[in-house]
Amino acid sequence: MRVLPSSVGAAAGAIALIVLLGSPPARTDATTPSDATNTESSAPLPKAQARFLSSTGVSEALGALRAPIEAGVGAESRADAAQILTIGIPHEFYFSRVAYSGFGGFYGRGGSWRTDYPRADEIFLSFIDRLLPNLDAYLSEFVVFLDDPDLRRFPFLYALEVGRMALRPAEIEGLRGYLLQGGFLVIDDFWGTREWANFEYEIQQVLPGYEIEDLPIDHNIFTTFYEIDEVIQVPNIGIRNCTAFSQADLSRCPTWERDGFIPMVKGIHDEKGRLMVIINWNTDLGDAWEWADDPYYPFVYSKYAYEMGVNFIVYAMSH
Question: pLDDT band for position 32 (50/70/90)?
């Protein structure tokens, strides 16, 4: 179990989140997931499909010694991307952050994939270790590349700040194959019409002909583990500086960026109705994950973000 940064306030915030999130309410309808969603059960979550995780070690192609980035993207080496090598038998789940190409090269202005890295990943995993104790999760940051032949080993990908994404042909092909073969991609932390236009262009290169849909609140992604009945706009850490910070006055604190006033959850399904891509637009779940242990970050946002994150993982691992 990962230890959170030491401070009385931080510890109190962490404990409060775990206690108040707790286990999801019991469900009796036909959409009740299997025992994989019951943290009180001794049964482990279902194993990831064989095409994602094999019994061999994770390929060194995902390691820190990866060859330099291909010509045409920039002279930077992707070996500079912090990567914790996995040793021995792969774990069931990796929080796999996508390192994608962007405007200005891999590490120039296009390096937006590194936003909140690695703290957000580490804090998120420290809570997941407690909220989903039966999940065999790798409890450290982990970076993947879209053109890597081993990408399909990992059933969950996380990409953010996609308003600056500019995928190369090899990345487009790699992500398309991954999604159509059962992969799950979470998009987060991009705001407004301009960033949406860029992301829409990029994802249409990956999945031409597939429709981006608004997800209704009765979609099973909102009930896979926790019952979520409202889409909340999660602001960045700047919310801490709001002069009206108390819970009672949060409505006075701006939560939007640019012209992204309304938070939306959209998605792309495959031909069988499986959700391949979930798109969190005009919201920043990652910041709430990152600052959940901060006593000055509003609990209402971190609670929602963690419930959504748990639902994403359970959906990815069970579909």
Answer: very low
Q: Look up residue 60 and give its two tokens.
A: 């060194």
Indicate the SS3 state at residue 153: helix
Q: Note the Cα 31 to chain centre separation in Å.
A: 23
Q: How far apart are alpha carbons 154 and 90 in whole angstroms?
A: 10
Q: Can you count the helices (H) and strands (E) in the chain?
A: 6, 7
| Cα dihedral 74→280→135→116 (10° resolution) | 50
80: Cα within 13 Å, side-chain hemisphere: 10
- Contact (Cβ atoms closer than 8 angstroms) between residue 199 and residue 165: yes
Fold of 51-318: Rossmann fold (3.40.50)
pLDDT in tens, 230-271: 999 999 777 766 644 555 566 667 787 788 789 999 999 999
Q: pTM of the predicted model, to two decimals?
A: 0.74
